[in-house]
C-alpha cells in the first residue's frame, strides 16, 4: 500500500514536470497538442475510492491549470475523466473482475484492453477540454479534428511511455 502511494506521488511529479518543462515546448502545429499528464489519472489503482479519484483528478488538472494559466479547463476535463473512468472500468471489466494488486497498464492488463481503456478516456478528456476552450459551435469541425489528432498523438505518447518506463513483470 505504501509503495503504491509513493509510486503514484512520484508518477504525478514526474509527469507534471515532463508536461510543463518538455512537452509544453513541443510544437506540432495548432492541431496536435500533446497532454500526456493524463497518464497520472489512467494509472491510478483499480481499487481507489470514487471520491478520492475525483479529488486527485481535480488536483492533477488544477496543477496543470496553474502552469498553463487556463482558468480551470484542465481541472474540469480531468474531473470528467476521473468520473468516467469508474464507469468505463465497470463496463470493460473482465468476467472475473480485476485481480488485487494489478494496475491499469499495458503490462498487467494487455495491449488491447489498455488501448480501449486509454483511448476512450483520452478522447473524452480531449473532447471536453477543446470544446470548453473554444466554447463556440461555429468551429465545430476544426475543433473535432483537433480533438481527434490530439487524442491520437497523446495516446501514442502515453503508449510509448508505458513501454519505456514500465518493466515487464507479466506472469506466465
Short description, anyone?
The protein has 172 residues and is an all-alpha fold.
Describe the fold and architecture.
Helix 4 runs antiparallel to helix 6. It is built from seven helices and no strands. The protein is mostly helical and 172 residues long. The protein has one domain. The model has no long low-confidence stretch (mean pLDDT 87).
Give descriptors for this structure.
172 residues; globular; mainly alpha; 0% strand
N-to-C SSE string, H for helix and E for strand = HHHHHHH
Protein structure class: mainly alpha
Could you tell me how far the N terminus lies from the C terminus, measured between alpha carbons in angstroms?
Answer: 24 Å
Residue windows where pLDDT falls under 50 for at least 5 positions:
none
Instruction: Report the biggest beta sheet as strand number plus sense, adding barrel if it closes.
Output: none
Strand content: under 5%
In total, the number of domains comes to: 1
Our count of helices gives: 7
What is the general shape? globular
Mean pLDDT: 87
Query: Would you count the extended β strands for me?
Result: 0
**Helical residues, percent:** 55-70%
Task: State Rg.
Answer: 16 Å
Ordered list of secondary-structure elements with their pairings:
Elements: H1 2-22, H2 39-42, H3 50-68, H4 73-91, H5 106-109, H6 111-134, H7 140-165
Amino acid at each position: 500500500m505504501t509503495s503504491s502511494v509513493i509510486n503514484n506521488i512520484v508518477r504525478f511529479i514526474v509527469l507534471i514536470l515532463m508536461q510543463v518543462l518538455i512537452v509544453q515546448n513541443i510544437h506540432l502545429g495548432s492541431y496536435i497538442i500533446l497532454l500526456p499528464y493524463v497518464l497520472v489519472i489512467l494509472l491510478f489503482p483499480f481499487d481507489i475510492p470514487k471520491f478520492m479519484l475525483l479529488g486527485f483528478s481535480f488536483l492533477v488538472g488544477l496543477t496543470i491549470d496553474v502552469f498553463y494559466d487556463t482558468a480551470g479547463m484542465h481541472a474540469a476535463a480531468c474531473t470528467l475523466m476521473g468520473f468516467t473512468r469508474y464507469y468505463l472500468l465497470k463496463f470493460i471489466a473482465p468476467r472475473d473482475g480485476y485481480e488485487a494488486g494489478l494496475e491499469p497498464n499495458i503490462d498487467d492488463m494487455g495491449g488491447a484492453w489498455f488501448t480501449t481503456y486509454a483511448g476512450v478516456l483520452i478522447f473524452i478528456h480531449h473532447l471536453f477540454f477543446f470544446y470548453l476552450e473554444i466554447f463556440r459551435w461555429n468551429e465545430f469541425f476544426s475543433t473535432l479534428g483537433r480533438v481527434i489528432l490530439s487524442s491520437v498523438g497523446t495516446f501514442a505518447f502515453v503508449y510509448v511511455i508505458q513501454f519505456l518506463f514500465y518493466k515487464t513483470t507479466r506472469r506466465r
